[in-house]
Amino acid sequence: xxTLPLSASWVTGWIGSTAALCTTISFVPQLLRVWQRxxxxxxxxxxxxxxxFGEACWLVYGxxxxxxxxxxxxxxxxxxxxxILALKLRYGRRDTAVDKADDRIEP
Amino acid sequence: xxTLPLSASWVTGWIGSTAALCTTISFVPQLLRVWQRxxxxxxxxxxxxxxxFGEACWLVYGxxxxxxxxxxxxxxxxxxxxxILALKLRYGRRDTAVDKADDRIEP
Lengths: 107, 107
What we know:
Largest interface: A-B, 48 and 49 residues
Largest sheet of chain A: none
Shape of chain A: elongated
Oligomer: homodimer
Structural class of chain A: mainly alpha
Order of helices and strands of chain A: HHHH
Number of strands of chain A: 0
């Protein structure tokens, strides 16, 4: 009789899919929160610039290795990150005056 | 003479590494911003709960397929996401009273 493998491939695939789904979908409540509050003062511009660039690289990587799941997951995450970035820039102008009062460095 | 391949494997590897590095490091300025401002009102609790769970799944997935880069990148991202989550929870108590005034739903 064959011994049971340490990890069945379908479990691994399921964990990977759950991981991709959760990390992508997680940006939806963040987008909604910024949209509803009409404020993005605590959101880091540097984070979303760097994150969007990273997601764009993941997209190119996925296209390069022709991986459907990598392309779909990262295209969706990139779209959400760019939407949050757009709101940050939109509300940023209004926030700047307030920020100047208590901020010296904006990470 | 051999034709040039559409994409050299070292270029693909470089793009993938850049992608992983940028998406991981991007959480550093967000952590610093919340830490310096002592505020996380615009940060979505649902995002960081879901994102941290997703990152934990990526970590398990990486351990499962024994991929060093996936393990390292996602362990670092998970640590940063948990730190932001901890600050969100820490400052959340103070923010709640203010939030109640203008929030009905907290995404």
